[in-house]
From TrEMBL:
Region described as Disordered: spans on this chain: 337-365
Keyword Membrane: yes
Compositionally biased residues, Low complexity: 339-349
Biased composition (Polar residues): 350-365
Record's keyword terms, sorted: Membrane, Transmembrane, Transmembrane helix
Gene3D superfamilies noted in UniProt: Immunoglobulins
Native source organism of the sequence: Natrinema hispanicum
Protein name: CARDB protein
Length: 393
């Protein structure tokens, strides 16, 4: 082959290569530069039947040389033509512009859902391009579960706590309390998220010992549910101090009183102080005119001792009892029997709450028959002794 023919062939090859390269640059430059910058879901772990919003951010890059039309955006199952949601004719997007496209989807079955956001755009020259973005969503089984707990407070009201143990929000919560077939009251609560509790109180004063039924009606996933519980109203019995197991020792006009201060309630009594009241016929005396006991726990007791001076005809000693219970100061009086008797007698006495106005009878004395027998023995002894002396001068 001649040198001239080699030159002709080389020039022809260069022209052919240059022509192909020019065609590739032209095609690439005419295509829009679109980017799906982000895809997000409104819920990280939705439940079956719950609506989830999937939002795709579509951008026409600043380096693009033409405006694009977003013809279609859709969410479909990965590697499948099955479509969950489709939005068409979104509009035009100039270079450097972006748009968010929200799409609502829901799922009937639980499990990991592998999805694809598919975007179809059209350039100014009429050509179309498709773009895809993968996204995964974990779907849980729907669990609607709410429960009620009821407690009775010290202030004679009943507290109801509504707890959402499910995995979806519940709303339109209405609580109704009834007793003996009659409605006591209805209360309403705000929307409650999963693992969250809300409380409300019902006035149940005067219903001690009665059964109260509480029903909650609420909505979840556009369905109505109910929860019901019953509760027997039982108000706590406040602490109450009574003097028990009392013994008195009397010597002349002096009296010593010993016993127990018992808490017959089911709350603690604090700052318990017992003292002899000063009256016309009774006076507190040293060393124990009053006695500080302190705290007496519910159902427990503590000992005490008091000393007093009484007139001869006095049959009882008023003992004042002061204490604090449930942040309230209480003062009561009990009467301790100290009926006249032997100066060294020790006997159990009865106590009386001043609210009853009842006083016990006096202390026991020797029976008349016993006294007569003693006198008969003394008379017989004296007579016998006189006869003996007469016979033995």
């Amino acid at each position: 082959m001649s040198r001239q023919r080699w030159v002709i062939l080389a020039v022809a090859a260069l022209v052919a290569v240059s022509s192909v390269g020019a065609m590739g640059i032209s095609v690439s430059a005419s295509q829009p530069k679109v980017h799906i910058s982000d895809v997000s879901a409104s819920k990280d772990e939705p439940v079956t039947g719950e609506t989830v919003t999937v939002t795709a951010e579509v951008s026409n890059l600043e380096t693009s040389n033409e405006t694009i039309d977003i013809k279609r955006v859709q969410v479909r199952k990965s590697n499948s033509a099955e479509t969950y949601r489709r939005v068409e004719d979104i509009g035009s997007l100039a270079p450097g512009g972006s748009v968010s496209v929200p799409m609502t989807v829901s799922f009937d079955n639980p499990g990991m859902k592998s999805l694809t956001v598919y975007v179809l755009v059209q350039g100014e020259n009429g050509g179309t391009e498709a773009y895809e973005y993968p996204v995964s969503i974990e779907v849980s089984e729907l669990n609607v579960n709410a429960d009620l707990s009821v407690t009775t407070d010290d202030n004679k009201s009943t507290a109801v706590e509504f707890t959402n143990y499910g995995n979806v929000n519940v709303s339109d919560i209405e609580l109704t309390a009834t007793a003996d077939g009659e409605t006591l009251a209805q209360k309403y609560l705000f929307e409650t998220e999963p693992d969250t509790s809300r409380s409300v109180a019902f006035d149940t004063e005067g219903l001690n010992g009665e059964e109260v039924s509480v029903t909650a009606t609420y909505t979840a996933q556009e369905e109505t549910y109910t929860a019901t519980t019953t509760h027997v109203v039982d108000y706590p019995l406040s602490g109450e101090i009574r003097l028990t197991s009392i013994e008195t020792t009397q010597s002349g006009s002096g009296v010593t009183i010993q016993g127990d201060s018992a808490n017959i309630g089911n709350t603690d009594a604090e700052s318990v102080l017992v003292s002899v009241e000063d009256t016309d016929s009774v006076s507190p005396t040293s060393p124990l005119g009053d006695y500080y006991i302190g705290t007496v726990e519910a159902g427990e007791f503590s000992t005490f001792e008091l000393t007093a001076e009484v007139e001869g005809s006095t049959s009882s000693v008023p003992v004042e009892i002061m204490y604090i219970v449930d942040n309230n100061r209480v003062t009561t009086t009990q009467l301790v029997d100290v009926s006249p008797g032997s100066s060294s007698a020790v006997r159990s006495s009865q106590t009386t709450d001043t609210t009853t106005g009842q006083e016990p009878s006096g202390g026991s004395d020797l029976p008349v028959t016993s006294i007569s027998a003693v006198l008969a023995v003394l008379v017989f002894s004296i007579v016998g002794f006189g006869i003996y002396r007469w016979r033995n001068p």
